[in-house]
Amino acid sequence: MTLDAVYVIGSASAFGSRIVPSEDVDHAFGMPSGKLKARAGIHSFAHAAENEDEGSLGEEACRKALHDAHAHTENLDWIVAASETHHAYPSLSAILHGRLGLRENCNALDVGSDVDDVGVSFGGDANRLLKGCHGEEISVQEEFTAETRRR
């Protein structure tokens, strides 16, 4: 198969469900209460709850991206994953491959990197790139920690 072009046709994200006020983070790092809110506009952080991990959040984000792109798992040829955690085996791409029920000949690749490096490497700002058999890419992102800012 030869591809002339690859396009991002959908993206999604999933965040941990445990919301932590920024004042709690201020306190944990010995900063005055309200510093993150006042100086950076950060009101809260989303952390993974006890029943969440990179596999469950990654799966949720993948399923959202596939749904939004009107794509199906049986059309995926690759899953490329990057993680900042120290979880080594099974790899995140293998975990997602199994959780999504991808076909056996769908390739799984882990890139030892974080979201910024993978985004640059693949020309987008995403943690996961799912590549479909028609050359389209579906980008998804899962986060253990996310900040919420109000404008």
Question: How does this structure look, described?
Answer:
The protein has one domain: Peroxisomal Thiolase, Chain A, domain 1. 29% of the residues lie in helices and 32% in strands. The chain contains 5 helices and 8 strands. The strands form 2 sheets. Strands 1-7-6-4-5 form a 5-stranded mixed beta sheet, covered by helices on one side. A 3-stranded antiparallel beta sheet has the order 2-3-8. The termini are far apart. The C terminus is likely disordered.
Furnish the topology, listing elements before pairings.
Layout: E1 7-15, E2 18-21, H1 22-28, H2 35-40, E3 42-47, H3 54-68, E4 76-82, H4 92-100, E5 107-111, H5 115-121, E6 128-132, E7 136-143, E8 146-149
Parallel strand pairs: 1-7, 4-5
Antiparallel strand pairs: 2-3, 3-8, 4-6, 6-7
Mean pLDDT: 75
CATH architecture title: 3-Layer(aba) Sandwich
Task: Give the N-terminus to C-terminus distance in angstroms.
Answer: 46 Å
Radius of gyration: 17 Å
The main pleated sheet reads as: 5 strands, mixed
CATH homologous superfamily (4th level) name: Thiolase/Chalcone synthase
> What's the CATH C level?
Alpha Beta
Proportion of β residues? 25-35%
As laid out across the biggest beta sheet, the strand order is 1-7-6-4-5
Tally of helical segments: 5
What string, H for helix and E for strand, traces the elements in order? EEHHEHEHEHEEE
In total, how many beta strands?
8
Question: Any low-confidence stretches, pLDDT <50, length ≥5?
Answer: 115-151
> Structural class of the helices, strands and pairings?
alpha/beta
**What is the domain total for the residues?**
1
| C-alpha geometry | elongated
Q: What is the fold-level CATH name, i.e. the topology?
A: Peroxisomal Thiolase, Chain A, domain 1
